[in-house]
Design goal:
It is a single chain. Helix content is about 60%, strand content about 0%. With about 260 residues, it is mostly helical. Helix 1 runs antiparallel to helix 10 and helix 2 packs antiparallel against helix 6.
């Protein structure tokens, strides 16, 4: 950790729980412009809090009440002092109406996950991915001080990143994939059929995926890191392991550093 990183001991600054050192998201943020690292870490941290609220909740009704609380806090972000320290930190970043609208979109997507926690088919899987990290990178694009580029490309990159992550942890979290992609079914398939089935999950994303030059800095690095992990998953034939398949920190560092 360099001297400027979270030197104040800020719980939500960079790095934080959403960007732990050594992780892909850590390096995605680490090689971005220094003046924007804290904003990116705050947004990843907030997105992580929202998604954890709806990830296998014990009581879906309570989870929806928590989302309503966040909606109220965000609606008053520019007028009143937020009660949550993470929102107080985000308020210091002077988020505009476009960013606040994107935060509401993150919450709306999280509520849809409560209603339909497992995708029914491939189309629903892609919609869930857009609602997950797709909405995250849409928020990041909206929250840049210059309002950044059109968020369409960033949303597509985030959706792809979410799809790769979900496939990588299919043995532990089969509920994140369509119900014909259970570990038992996939293990029983010959490797070429397993590859064909899981490749099909990405078919709807193919025409939407941008080139790196179309992406803002954080989205470009997350996209490159997702591509590298996807290549590893395909090399294994999408092997169904008990532990999520990932790359080591040095590999993450190298991939993120090469994105210019």
């Amino acid at each position: 950790m360099s001297a400027e990183e979270n030197g104040s001991g800020d719980e939500w600054g960079f790095p934080n729980a959403a960007t732990p050192p050594g992780s892909a998201d850590y390096y995605a943020v680490r090689f971005c412009a220094p003046q924007r690292r804290r904003l990116y870490a705050l947004l990843l941290g907030w997105h992580g809090v929202i998604r954890s609220t709806v990830d296998q909740p014990r009581d879906p009704g309570v989870a929806r009440m928590k989302l309503d609380w966040w909606r109220n806090e965000i609606s008053g972000l520019k007028r009143t002092e937020p009660r949550h320290p993470l929102l107080r930190a985000l308020r210091e970043e002077s988020l505009d109406d476009r960013a606040i609208a994107a935060m509401h979109q993150v919450i709306d997507a999280a509520e849809r996950h409560i209603i339909a926690p497992q995708p029914a088919d491939d189309a629903a899987f892609l919609a869930a991915c857009r609602g997950d990290r797709g909405s995250l990178l849409g928020l990041v694009a909206a929250a840049r001080p210059d309002n950044g580029p059109d968020p369409t490309a960033a949303v597509a990159a985030g959706s792809y990143s979410s799809a790769v992550s979900r496939v990588g942890q299919l043995a532990r979290r089969p509920d994140l994939l369509p119900n014909d992609c259970t570990p038992l079914r996939l293990r029983d398939l010959p490797m070429h059929r397993r590859v064909r089935r899981l490749d099909a999950l990405f078919d709807g994303l193919g025409p939407l995926l941008p080139s790196p030059g179309e992406l803002p800095e954080l989205a470009a690095r997350m996209h490159a890191l997702a591509l590298a992990l996807h290549e590893k998953l395909r090399r294994t034939g999408y092997a169904v392991h008990d532990q999520p398949i990932d790359r080591n920190p040095l590999a993450h560092l190298w991939t993120a550093w090469r994105v210019r």
